[in-house]
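Why do we care about 3D structure at all? Because function follows from shape, and shape follows, mostly, from sequence. That is the central idea of this module. The next example makes it concrete: a single protein chain, its amino acid sequence, and then its structure expressed as tokens.
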Amino acid sequence: MTLLRTVTVVALVASLGACADSSNQKQQVGAVVGGVLGGVLGSNVGQGKGQTAGIIGGTLLGALLGSEVGKSMDETDRMMSERTAQRSLESSPTGTSSSWSNPDSGHRGTVTPTNTYRNASNQDCRDYETTVYIDGREETATGVACRQSDGTWSMQN
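And the structure:
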């Protein structure tokens, strides 16, 4: 049964990967990785036909989500964004934006601390807003980061 699950996952992932446009490798890799992970998670659902449905559903959903993430931000974008967030949370006054830009992908973004406080665990925390511009689309999110014992800031949500 485990062999059947593995073969099913691999077959579904391979068929999804074959449909992807080779000019968009990040999206294809995201779809394959997401499909594999989704298939593995889906294999833990139910038994018999229900388990097979879980594998198929998990693979398809994982591939879709992985594809969307893969086409959005590449590893360099994520590293630049994280580095900018750490720098901004550490030293930027409330309301002051710090920016990053990746000339290779054309993606860019900002991180703006919006509030500074000490939480119930006596950690320094900052609310922040981050905006990312990808392929002409603007995406904005808010969150909370708290300073860890090693001095880095950890995103809480």
